[in-house]
Amino acid sequence: MIIVMKTNSTAAEIGAVIARVQDIGASPHPIYGAERTVVAVVGETRAFDPTAFKQMPGVERITSISAPFKLASRESHPDNTIIQLNDVRIGGPEIVIIAGPCSVESRSQLLETAHAVKEAGAHILRGGAFKPRSSPYSFQGLGLKGLEILAEAREIYGLHIVTEVMNSQAVPMVAEYADILQIGARNMQNYGLLHAVGRVQRPVLLKRGMMSSMEELLMSAEYILAGGNYKVMLCERGIRSFEKYTRNTFDLNAVPVLKQLSHLPVIADPSHATGRWDVVPAMARAAIAAGADGLMIEVHPHPSRALSDGPQSLKPQVFAELMQQLKRVAAAVDRTLELPTPVLQGDVR
Amino acid sequence: MIIVMKTNSTAAEIGAVIARVQDIGASPHPIYGAERTVVAVVGETRAFDPTAFKQMPGVERITSISAPFKLASRESHPDNTIIQLNDVRIGGPEIVIIAGPCSVESRSQLLETAHAVKEAGAHILRGGAFKPRSSPYSFQGLGLKGLEILAEAREIYGLHIVTEVMNSQAVPMVAEYADILQIGARNMQNYGLLHAVGRVQRPVLLKRGMMSSMEELLMSAEYILAGGNYKVMLCERGIRSFEKYTRNTFDLNAVPVLKQLSHLPVIADPSHATGRWDVVPAMARAAIAAGADGLMIEVHPHPSRALSDGPQSLKPQVFAELMQQLKRVAAAVDRTLELPTPVLQGDVR
Amino acid sequence: MIIVMKTNSTAAEIGAVIARVQDIGASPHPIYGAERTVVAVVGETRAFDPTAFKQMPGVERITSISAPFKLASRESHPDNTIIQLNDVRIGGPEIVIIAGPCSVESRSQLLETAHAVKEAGAHILRGGAFKPRSSPYSFQGLGLKGLEILAEAREIYGLHIVTEVMNSQAVPMVAEYADILQIGARNMQNYGLLHAVGRVQRPVLLKRGMMSSMEELLMSAEYILAGGNYKVMLCERGIRSFEKYTRNTFDLNAVPVLKQLSHLPVIADPSHATGRWDVVPAMARAAIAAGADGLMIEVHPHPSRALSDGPQSLKPQVFAELMQQLKRVAAAVDRTLELPTPVLQGDVR
Amino acid sequence: MIIVMKTNSTAAEIGAVIARVQDIGASPHPIYGAERTVVAVVGETRAFDPTAFKQMPGVERITSISAPFKLASRESHPDNTIIQLNDVRIGGPEIVIIAGPCSVESRSQLLETAHAVKEAGAHILRGGAFKPRSSPYSFQGLGLKGLEILAEAREIYGLHIVTEVMNSQAVPMVAEYADILQIGARNMQNYGLLHAVGRVQRPVLLKRGMMSSMEELLMSAEYILAGGNYKVMLCERGIRSFEKYTRNTFDLNAVPVLKQLSHLPVIADPSHATGRWDVVPAMARAAIAAGADGLMIEVHPHPSRALSDGPQSLKPQVFAELMQQLKRVAAAVDRTLELPTPVLQGDVR
Lengths: 349, 349, 349, 349
What we know:
eight-stranded parallel β-barrel; 2 domains; 349 residues; TIM Barrel; 32% helix
């Protein structure tokens, strides 16, 4: 931590800052420049709110030196975290594909989608049973019934299941059905929920808030890790900017940056990050090329009849074609995406 | 709702859209231009997700005509909502001042602050017992103990109490102690929580998310109103932008705009919106001049020792001076802020 | 400047950084922490691009300590700059009002507006003769003819004239007609133009770019000051954010912050910052309460027939009423706005 | 264009709007809903400022239906524009690589870089002779001397040259030396400059402003096309957001979206879009996978001694390795990037 004093700060003010640094058990190193003085603080200060110094007389501002997250940092854990779900490994050289509808709308809709994405090579099935919707008048999900349908699809198709959990009370119930617990973007800083998923032993897919910096995403991961659950994957799903042509701005820079800063797997969600099915394939390819460990893609058998997120959902046939493209891009960046041998019935493409 | 067709859309595609509009019980009005066709949709479509049309062949995009919120809109309720707490009226010509520390840190800290803000003329005491913190290593609040201290301050000083409730399970407990339930910016779209506070009869202070649009804020208010709780006040507390000199960007435009769009009272929080105590007074004055019904201001007896938000907290003396200024600005815009007659003990200003 | 080394940086890398600091004539102060080393740099480094250090092996990042602007800073010039135009002083206790249409559209339109704003108490007449328009198909201004009309209005009504200059070649011509040269938001970083207005002795109104930080605004002012023209006023006119209900987000925080950082006068433009005439009055009042030295307000006799910016233009009668309100708000914050005694002809308000 | 009336608009107000639409030569189609009326406007309205309607009594807002750009739109020109520079084609299946230093700093620096990027397979050499710098105290470029050095590099290495032109007066001089004129991000809405490059027959590389929407970028291209110069390529170089870990937020969504909306070639600049050399390779690969027609990459022989943009510059060896990777990614998305056969001298990797 560096404490920058004002140009006109007095010796007494500088002395008070030095004393305060000693108070908190750290070691002060003042440097006297011609224009102003700075005080470098050496020692562990993560538990201390650095902004308290800001209010001291003569202090202009504070600059942090160390990242505020520790368990999530690659400095503390140089090797990639790999999350294993039976045969599926997340964070290794293999690309993992999560696909399915935004919401579970009915048994037939989900099973039809599960069949299609399994056949195309997806590893994990997504589908929301509890839906956060900005309007109280919109479809809010099937709830428990949705979880049961997801579990049935897992039985039939051998796919793992990821679904969103929206509050801490629901964690045990959702953890009973789901293989991966999803924390949605709007809940990235719902700390009660982060605590709750930190205490279960289910992998967590943590989506970046649409207003959250990469550092804040890593701090939210830190909450889960600090709770004892080390199986966290980070998900870039688009941030909010002034650009309105797409639903969100896909911050793909976050993929290589998060891989640098952290050992946790990074998943990209081109469906939410674009909001337009017709640019999803291009951005899915880009995410793999940028180094993502996996993708989360919305697929719906009849997008125009979807109860949510229809405009960003791929039809099964488009998804199957995309998987072929992704396999090629993965290979070009020394990653692997193995696809099932298609049962030939006419022309696949 | 207006459905804009692509320039090269076919008659069959336009026909399908028209049929779909009829399906949902609305009335389609196609308009054929030289370049393209648009279909205007007449009828109640709020319960229907308009984006589903986006996925239909030949459709380029959808434009909504009506606001998606209804109970919160001034169109549906032209008169100002006034929330009454005994002698304090929020939403009328009187300016309401909420003041106090970011967090309840100790009994003495809170009582000292309560005494000071009461004497300066504040009506409502703020103080967090449960604190959402971006770091798991930061002070998280005193919890129930904090609520008890707040209740004691109410008894002693006759101030109303507002404090944050962070999850739906805690609503009954917090509602037992607090006069106003605060929903924090990070929870503005925590729908379970919005549902929960919609079912109690305590006024709610709903803070705008730091990257939420005014429309989204009003949609979140709609959740609470739709639950049966009509005592909602909206709070502008700064949004996130590229500007980094201040903690947030104070979107004061929201004050007159929300007053136009909605009948609910609008409170402004210059402390979070600036993050710098030395610009809080200027922006507090500005908020009143812009038409806010009240202010929420952080005050701490020893800001440099605060466990959170010290840099944006006013010292009691600065707050007392600010109240005098606010009284003058309120009068200049035909609002009132009555201050207690100071007990003369030397020079107040 | 503080150079933060990586946690695993070697002694040789740290040594190279220290040597490099000495190379540029500054003095290095290394501080060795348990986790990492930082090197504080003492000495004048403004002319040196600090980012060059970023590329050195072992360096993680660089933090600047001093503001990069000097002539514009209040540290270097503690007293307010006051710009005098005959009887009008900008930057003193008096509030200065600039008003007029977005564009000069015709002689009659401008003279009618000039008459109305003069009568209501405005000091300076605005009006664009050269218009930057995002579409090549939109009205681009009357050019030289517009300048002549402005000069005629000055003669008739005794108002000072401010108008935009869009490129460096046009500076001599515009300076011949205008009392104040306006640099538009889109040209805030047009450095050739900043150089050009730095070499003339006409006051400059420098509008903040819609994408520019306060620091960048001050750096652009620095260009003009460094050229020898010290009569610069800064103008906050709204920045771009995700919020779309208003045309821009009025960053009123900039008013007190710029007054702290700099000695230059600060003008606020609520017309562009909101884009909606019906919220202009509220935000004009707020800007005065926040400490602005003046306002720039669009007024048009027939807004619905305006060739540009009609939706944000006030009718003369609304402007006249606003001036009465502004006078009261100015007084409430110890500023003055003297209005002409109205010639009584029925009911002014 | 759709004109949305207020819910309480009167028949007279609606009638006035209808009459006004007829006035401007378009055809009004009113649709009367239960809650409100909308008036659809059929006819060519591009030359008319639609916002003028906003100010009419009873009008709530205006929605545009057609894109405001025409020459730049794919609707008006379905086939890709291909820009040919002798042997280099921009906009076809081949990927075009532009590389070189941010600034021309010296003859030896430029020739050394030119040699390296040529050998690695680049087609076009970049290098700034005139530099827009946010500080007046920073290096501003070598000017004409820089242009001469660039021309010499072209002679020696057979590379095409792209360099920035900062103002309209300089267009003839820069066009004499450069094969492609670059319009920088800060000048994207410098309309005088856009006019000037629209009148010469040199290809233009138009960089997106850091807070400009895709639509505004296309409108700026429209200025150049409307001037008669059809050889425009669009460049995505990162936009400004709240995220501060990277210099800018790389809006790669813009690549497929601009390709959809327009026929013009799209170039991506991962150097400015990230500001960090260590994530440039990942994002360069991503840009190709997203469908970019080419890349612009900063390369410097000694980044830590660069006078500008050192932190985002690749060393020649890293660039050469990246080119090998890009070739593979290009092939995976059915594009081609042919590289020269390396002269074997040890291990190229």
